[in-house]
Amino acid sequence: MTAEDTSPDVQLTDDHRLRHFLSIDGLNRPLLEEILDTAASFVEVGDRSIKKVPLLRGKTVVNLFFEPSTRTRTTFELAAQRLSADVLNIDIARSATSKGESLMDMLWNLEAMASDMFVVRHSDSGAPYFIASQVTPNVAVINAGDGRHAHPTQAMLDMYTIRHYKGGFENLRVAIVGDILHSRVARSQIHALRILGASEIRVIGPRTLLPVDIEGLGVQVYTDLEQGLRDADVVIALRLQKERMDSALLPSESEFFRLYGLDEHRLRVCHPDAIVMHPGPINRGVEIAPEVADGERSVILHQVTFGIAVRMAVMSMCISGQEGGGVL
Ligand code: CP
Fold this sequence. Notes:
Layout: H1 29-43, E1 60-65, H2 71-82, E2 86-90, H3 103-112, E3 117-122, H4 127-134, E4 140-146, H5 152-166, E5 173-177, H6 184-196, E6 200-204, E7 220-222, H7 225-229, E8 234-237, H8 253-260, H9 264-267, E9 275-277, H10 290-293, H11 300-322
Parallel strand pairs: 1-2, 1-3, 3-4, 5-6, 5-8, 6-7, 8-9
Helix pairs in contact: 1-5, 1-11, 2-11, 5-6, 5-11
The structure holds phosphoric acid mono(formamide)ester.
Phosphoric acid mono(formamide)ester is lined by residues 69-72, 145, 154, 279-281.
C-alpha cells in the first residue's frame, strides 16, 4: 500500500463536512479554520474541575496503534473521554493478529461491537485510507500517523499553537528543521500552512534528509541552518527518524547537532519573538539543545495540551459529519 493509493475525497461528505480525517491535503481553508475554532471552544474544558462535555456520550472510540506512541495515543484517549465517549485501547501486540488474524477480520469484529470510530496509527502509508474504504458507512476513521505520509491531527495542533501565539498566518515565516525526508508531520504541516496562508515556509536540513521534489510543495529549501533561520517567526524542530532510515544518511548524531541542532546561539538570527516547536518525541542534544527545549521560546508542552482540544474538535466534527450534522 502506498500514499499514492489515497484519495482525499473519501474523507468528506457530499456537503463537504468531515466524514473521516485522513489528510490535510485536499481540505480547504474554511474547514481547517472550523477545526481550529471548534478546538478553541474545547480548550476551557481542560480547565474545569469536571473535564467533560456530553457530545459523544454513547459513542465508542477504538484506538488502534500499530506503531509506538505516547502523545498521540494518550491525547486521543483523553479527548474521547472528555467528549464522554467509551474508549477501547487495543493492545496490538496482545491481540489476535499475533495469532494470524487479518487486519480486516479484526476490524469487522470491532465493528460488530458497535464501534463508531477507529483512530489508526500504522507504519504503512495509506493504511487509514484502506481502512476507511472498508468500514461500514457509520464508522469514522481518523489518521493518527501513517508511514511517511501524513499526521493530520499533529499538523492541526501545530497550527492551533501557531495561531495562539502569533495571532494568524499572514506575514509569518515558518522554518521546519531536520529530517524532512521521513517526516509525515512535515508534509502535513506544509499542506496546512499553505492552505492557511503562511507567507513563507522554509525547510532546512542536509540534502540527504530533504525529499528531491520538496520544492513542489511550495517551500523554500535551505541546507544552511543560519540562513534558513534568519528572521523566522516560528521554528519547528523535527526528530531524526532512525527507524525509517534504511541506509547511512548522516555521519553521526553529533555531526548532525553540530550542523543542524537548535541551540541558543543559532536561534539569535530568528525574529526576537520567535517560538520554538517540536512534535515530540524530542531527542535532546541531537536536534535540539536542552536549554532550547526547556527555554522561554519553547511552546513544546503547550502543543501537547492544545492537542487534546484539537483532537476533541476533529472527533466531534467527524461524528457530526457521519450523522449529517446532528451531534454538535
Ligand atoms: N508527535 C507524535 O506523534 O508523538 P507520539 O509518537 O508520541 O504519538
